[in-house]
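Methods — Computational structure assignment.
A single polypeptide chain was analysed. Its primary sequence is given first, followed by the predicted tertiary structure written as structure tokens.
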Amino acid sequence: MNTTDTDHIDVRYVAKLARIDLSEDEVAALASQLDDVLAFVHQLDELDLDGVEPLSHPHPLENVFREDVVEASLEPGEMIGNAPASVQQLVRVPQMIE
């Protein structure tokens, strides 16, 4: 495993940023686990990626929206009748700005 000082994650620093109190045993366990994760990620550096196009997505993006179809909707009187409160054929909503 070729690791440098920049490959080591300071668990205490990250825990402080996250405002998490860790015991010394937890710090040691997490440091070991994170070092294992970094070692695994460094294995990707060994892959031969010549001729491989970079991707923004692993799968092609497709539009998943349905077609916009005009359909019958409520009449204004029906819509106002469904509102909890109305004033002069408008839906009344709680005041948000004083």
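Note: The two ends are 63 Å apart (CA to CA).
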